[in-house]
């Protein structure tokens, strides 16, 4: 699938360069019109990130997200600072279909394992952001400010016992750069973890990037900045994915 993505900071659509809050670009878009078009063209799911919530849970943009939920029937997965059962329940009560768990999957593994039991593997996406050095995929947390000793493979293995299904994997060197995706990474992890539906994220700038990612075997491609900047249309992206 093609999954259009929107990051929000202080109520506005924004893209960060490699996760850096100091290197950001705001976009003046009519979200309602985007969602109408996506529904018409056949988009199956949308990805949202609450960048305020990522930095401070108390500043979660709930009013904005309640409004967004009210004007689209497209299922939405949301991430950004989700650290407690209360956070998850609040978002599901608003109407979100999946929650995206990042840092907690590393720092609070047993609690997250419990969430899989409570909500089921189809409701939880693990967002694993990696910094790759000498092919070692070290996971970064807390808005990519902190590198951990955990690797991508270790975390997937740990949660596979809970029927882990959805993993959003980002090579942080690619995020927001429009420099092309890391297809080598996705080929490798798709081959190793056949039970996982991977969502590839980072670096997509052209239709040919989508074509390349489809060939790696990933289940979905997250497309953010390239759609916002009209590098291609959602219609072109969906057609490429379906026709490859």
TrEMBL record:
<dbReference type="GO" id="GO:0000162">
    <property type="term" value="P:L-tryptophan biosynthetic process"/>
</dbReference>
<dbReference type="InterPro" id="IPR044524">
    <property type="entry name" value="Isoase_HisA-like"/>
</dbReference>
<feature type="active site" description="Proton acceptor">
    <location>
        <position position="7"/>
    </location>
</feature>
<dbReference type="GO" id="GO:0000105">
    <property type="term" value="P:L-histidine biosynthetic process"/>
</dbReference>
<keyword id="KW-0413">Isomerase</keyword>
<dbReference type="GO" id="GO:0005737">
    <property type="term" value="C:cytoplasm"/>
</dbReference>
<keyword id="KW-0963">Cytoplasm</keyword>
<protein>
    <recommendedName>
        <fullName>1-(5-phosphoribosyl)-5-[(5-phosphoribosylamino)methylideneamino] imidazole-4-carboxamide isomerase</fullName>
        <ecNumber>5.3.1.16</ecNumber>
    </recommendedName>
</protein>
<keyword id="KW-0028">Amino-acid biosynthesis</keyword>
<comment type="similarity">
    <text>Belongs to the HisA/HisF family.</text>
</comment>
<dbReference type="GO" id="GO:0003949">
    <property type="term" value="F:1-(5-phosphoribosyl)-5-[(5-phosphoribosylamino)methylideneamino]imidazole-4-carboxamide isomerase activity"/>
</dbReference>
<dbReference type="InterPro" id="IPR023016">
    <property type="entry name" value="HisA/PriA"/>
</dbReference>
<feature type="active site" description="Proton donor">
    <location>
        <position position="129"/>
    </location>
</feature>
<dbReference type="InterPro" id="IPR011060">
    <property type="entry name" value="RibuloseP-bd_barrel"/>
</dbReference>
<dbReference type="InterPro" id="IPR006063">
    <property type="entry name" value="HisA_bact_arch"/>
</dbReference>
<dbReference type="InterPro" id="IPR006062">
    <property type="entry name" value="His_biosynth"/>
</dbReference>
<dbReference type="InterPro" id="IPR013785">
    <property type="entry name" value="Aldolase_TIM"/>
</dbReference>
<keyword id="KW-0368">Histidine biosynthesis</keyword>
<comment type="pathway">
    <text>Amino-acid biosynthesis; L-histidine biosynthesis; L-histidine from 5-phospho-alpha-D-ribose 1-diphosphate: step 4/9.</text>
</comment>
<dbReference type="Pfam" id="PF00977">
    <property type="entry name" value="His_biosynth"/>
</dbReference>
